[in-house]
Amino acid sequence: LPRAFTGLVPRESQEVSMQDLLFIVLTIVAFGVLLLVIKGVERFER
Amino acid sequence: MSSTAAGWLQFALLVAALAACYVPLGNYMAKIFTSDKDWRVERGFYKLIGIDRTADQKWSVYLRSMLAFSFISVLFLYGIQRVQTIFPYDQGLPAVTPDTAWNTAASFVTNTNWQNYAGEATMGYVTQMSGLVVQQFMSAAVGIVVAIAMIRGFTRSKTDKLGNFWVDVTRCVVRLLLPLSIVGGLVLIAGGSIENFNAYHTITTLSGAHQTIVGGPVGSSEIIKNMGNNGGGWFNTNAAHPFENPNPFTNWFIIFTLLLIPFATPRAFGKMVKDNRQGYALVAVMAVIWAAAVGGINFFEAHTSLGGNATVLAGHAAEGTEVAFGTPGCSLFAASTTVTSTGAVNCFHDSLTPFGGGIALFDIALGEIAPGGVGAGMYGILVLAMVTVFVAGLMVGRTPEYIGKKIRPVEMKYAALYFLTLPVLVLTAAGLSLGTPIGQRAIFNPGYHGLTEVVYAFASMANNNGSAFAGLGSGDAWYQVMGGFVMLFGRFLPEIFALGLAGSLARQQPVPASAGTLDTRTPLFVGMLIGVILILVGLTYFPALALGPFAEGLH
Which end is more exposed in chain A, N or C (fewer Cβ atoms within 10 Å of the end residue's Cβ)? Predict the structure, then answer.
């Protein structure tokens, strides 16, 4: 939702960088954790 | 007519309209997910993506399909934002920065629509249409199908299969969300929401100042933003912007659309479990809590003596309110957007009176089950209904059964995990933000209000609401990354436990009702369920509520 103090000024563009790699890795980590939880629940089920 | 009377008239019309849609829409939803027949367009889609539509999935396979779909969606949406300059209609805007792009991708895929950016100054038209709006359809569909899979836990027995995720999602989009959005979008456009591909242009005002006039296909996205309980606005000021929400009629219609599917889902539940009275009981709980939220926020926004000096001078809590809708229009919207997981706003929640804002925060902390997000509200209230049945069993010696399924320790463990996940996420993230310099540097308001802003932010993100109290520099890297994780875990961890619970229920043999079975279709059960919800949430969040909005209001 609207953020105060964000303002309407576009932030500076950035070229494809190491940060992109970092956020892709963070996504993989987050979903990896969720898959591990599913695995844990399956084990609990047995 | 006074604005207060107009506000209550709008509320009465909403109740009437929602009541009129309850049976037909609920029945239609049940039919969508129980029919054996596929539409031609659906068959073509299954062929295209190589899906065997007859293959039923175990709960964990259903979940993995959902997670795989969401994983790809996050990466796809992230990529679109990062290369938006290659698309037409980019309005000359640069690529979205990596941290904002990731937070936004996590936000829209989880149906949160928390926005760390101003839409008209950050996203080109193609990014909004092919990235954000697509996810507004898909994330809403994912929530609905998880609820449907959970309901199948009650309707099926001696199996661990809960349906086919790909079939359910396809049907949900093709048969439910798209048709409703086409009709609703036309209503909004006819009501005055803009729908164009005009480039931004600058005009000179009568006073000689320059003003940039923005554009975009807003009406067609505004409808799914609300009907899918998404909330991510095309513009920074969301539904307070006259191009999104131009007049009191569109304001009423937007509130109606954001409540429509959540309030009809209990009917689909009743229809699927072949006992419509079960649906009536749950919708009664939702309606009571929603009405209490509307009344509460209205009361505190209208009673100036409780709002501080500024409201006394203005005659009502006027700050941050869009004058076209007035305080009652703001209160009705604020209550409806926070009891659902919508998060769209037509006034500034940071400007609500302390107790009014406290109710909005409490609504979100309820886990958004009254009526809750599309689908998410349904599986949330089903888990709490099972907790209530179990508590009743402990108190009065009744057999803990719900819809013919025993509530055993294993089901209660799933329910406990489900319920504990969100408070752990919210309070841990808020505690770390309040207690560390890295989190504190983005808090612009000291004292009680600053604490409320931080707790509200993480409650909103974890519960996939998306509304903001503001006053918080959430564009800071800490809030971008922490917020992204909170939204992803806040969405998917409860869904894992809900579907695990559904799988456990589906494996059971149904038990016939006996003299010892608690009737869950009575006003007594409705009252008990409301009590359990309020006590559980009240106890969990009381310290945060006491130190934030309550302390500010009493100060």
Answer: C
